[in-house]
Amino acid sequence: MSSFSQPLLSQPFSSLTDLHDVCLTLPGPDLSAQEAIARREGTLTKPAGSLGQLEKLTSWLGTWQKKSLPQLSKVNILIFAGNHGVVAQNVSPWSAEVTTQMVQNFRHGGAAINQIAQVSQAALSVIPVAELTPTADFTLAPAMTEQAFLHAVNIGYNSVPHDSSLVCLGEMGIGNTTAAAALAALLFGGDSLLWSGRGTGLDDDGVKRKAAVVDTARALHAAESTSPLELARRAGGYELAAIMGAALAARHLSVPVLLDGYVCTAAVAPLFKLNPQGLAHTWLAHCSAEAGHARLAQAVGLTPLLSLDMRLGEGSGAALAIPVLRAAVACHTKMATFSEASVTKRR
């Protein structure tokens, strides 16, 4: 099932100070649920640790759902779409109108994410942010005003269903890998070329041009602020701000989060910079083939679950990880215990 309507908004954040304070005061994991999951895991008919990452996924889900028996009854994929003024700098072989066209493609069920969402038994919502009006060109000025940035964060914050078992975050926006590269470079430093990849099909000269654009953005904005939220306002985008808001809401709603690729990781990186535990409720679904993603994942302390050389966006990598989590939950909740199966435990 797909949804394309804009959520009704409240305005939880009216200033960057409000947002900053909430980013610093986050609920922690449910350790009692974690302990209960570990106890049951030890009774199941298998050698200890033999399901590897599946066992870790089960523990992660239950710990953040605050449930001793984790479940995936309602899985939501949220795709935020936005446009970028920096496209004027020739950083993409595609024009900004493709963002609108792809949103329509999502609406008609014709994109990769539609197919993967159906296979993964997940509800898909596609949310255009700022009515797909482009941000300012961040080589010339901050991408968003404070009000516009907060409005986008609030859209994301209000988009997370309160009864969701798991949220998968993704994006669509021509030019947004340039925004991701600029934000990553501003937050973590290093050579801009290392953060700049091929995006939607740049050649070698195009990648160098993108890196030069990132350098220009860094020169303009690094001198103005070191605040992670202010840098997100200056060098990010509407859909990146919404993704950050959604990740923050999920934390407060006890909903674990699967993150998609490079743009998604860059979008939530300010939460990590503000609070080392800011992404503890998230799991990186896959390592994108986009240059810079593995480097960024390491910088924010996330280990990808899958590595399939994908760089599509759309939340496609996150959605592909859902069946793995479903298998993990099924093993934990439906396997027989040694006692139930009359199997002798290891001496």
Layout of strands and helices, then pairs:
Layout: E1 2-3, H1 16-24, H2 31-41, H3 53-65, E2 75-81, H4 97-107, H5 112-119, E3 123-128, H6 146-157, E4 166-172, H7 176-188, H8 192-195, H9 204-221, H10 228-235, H11 238-252, E5 257-259, H12 262-274, E6 282-284, H13 293-299, H14 316-334, H15 338-341
Helix pairs in contact: 2-3, 3-14, 5-14, 6-11, 7-9, 7-10, 7-12, 10-12, 11-12, 12-13
Describe the structure.
With 347 residues, the chain is an alpha/beta fold. It is 48% helix and 8% strand. The protein is built from 15 helices and 6 strands. The chain has helices at 16-24, 31-41, 53-65, 97-107, 112-119, 146-157, 176-188, 192-195, 204-221, 228-235, 238-252, 262-274, 293-299, 316-334, 338-341; strands at residues 2-3, 75-81, 123-128, 166-172, 257-259, 282-284. Strands 1-3-2-4-5-6 form a 6-stranded parallel β-sheet, sandwiched between helices. β5, α12 (262-274) and β6 (282-284) form a beta-alpha-beta unit. It is globular, with a radius of gyration of 20 Å. It starts with a strand and ends in a 6-residue tail after the last helix.
